[in-house]
Design brief:
This protein has a single domain, classed as Aldolase class I (TIM Barrel, Alpha-Beta Barrel), CATH 3.20.20. The chain is α/β, with parallel strands linked by helices and about 220 residues long. It has nine helices and eight strands. Bound molecules: D-xylitol-5-phosphate and zinc ion (ZN). D-xylitol-5-phosphate (DX5) binds next to strand 2, strand 8 and helix 8.
């Protein structure tokens, strides 16, 4: 499975509907970056925007919660129509959050910062629906891919394959047609891309190019 999840963080918020429609023919995922100005030094959007998107899109709304108190907002995201919520490992209460997300009918993702130690979070990997490895420190779009995360990415791939737990492996940050190849070879299957998609004059074509770069790297992997 290869999926490109365009991050609307890099879209023009005044034309959000148009941005989402522009990639709808190429992918069924939309990545929503939620920041609270506390867990990360930036503020973005929240559940009301997800509710607005939901009215106009059937896409899988993958909500990345870069917030200190995700437990206080899960119900709002569920009501808004989020399909998944990825909370950060760094905020703690992981198993409780997984149960809470499932109870509200959403998939549970665990996001980890680039400096998180695989050994510290490995035990949670089989418990979550998705592991989101950050390849930049969260907070802003347009940063450079950190190649140091290729190692935990490969270790996570190996663990997921060996245990057959089915956890989806996602990578987020600095994805381009070059870095997507590295991440794909290391085992990622869902690729979040912000500036590479919405910073391009033709977002649909950008998604196509990312997908074909990942597919060719996948052939090299097998
Ligand atoms: C970073 C966000 C990412 C970001 C990706 O804090 O979580 O999803 O929007 O943007 P690019 O692809 O430009 O690194
Ligand atoms: Zn994100």
């Amino acid at each position: 499975m290869i999926e490109i999840a365009p991050s609307i963080l890099s879209a023009d918020f005044a034309f959000l509907g148009e941005a989402i429609r522009s990639v709808g023919g190429e992918t069924s995922w939309i990545h929503v970056d939620v920041m609270d100005g506390h867990f990360v030094p930036n503020l973005t959007i929240g559940a009301p925007v997800v509710a607005s998107i939901r009215k106009h899109s059937d896409s899988f709304l993958d909500c990345h919660l870069m917030i200190t108190d995700p437990w206080d907002y899960f119900a709002d995201f569920a009501r808004a129509g989020a399909n998944s919520v990825s909370f950060h490992f760094e905020v703690g209460r992981t198993l409780e959050l997984v149960e809470m997300a499932h109870g509200l009918g959403m998939k549970a993702g665990m996001a980890v910062n680039p400096d998180a130690s695989f050994d510290d979070y490995a035990k949670y990997v089989p418990e979550v629906d998705m592991l989101l490895i950050m390849s930049v420190f969260p907070g802003f779009a347009g940063q450079s891919f950190m190649e140091g995360v290729l190692e935990p990415l490969s270790r996570a791939r190996k663990m997921i394959d060996e245990s057959r737990c089915g956890t989806i492996l996602q990578i987020d940050g600095g994805i381009s047609t070059d870095t997507i190849r590295l991440a794909c070879r290391a085992g990622a299957e869902v690729f979040v891309a912000g500036s590479a998609v919405f910073g391009s004059a033709d977002p649909a074509d950008a998604v196509r190019r990312l997908r074909s770069a990942a597919e060719s790297a996948l052939e090299e992997r097998s």
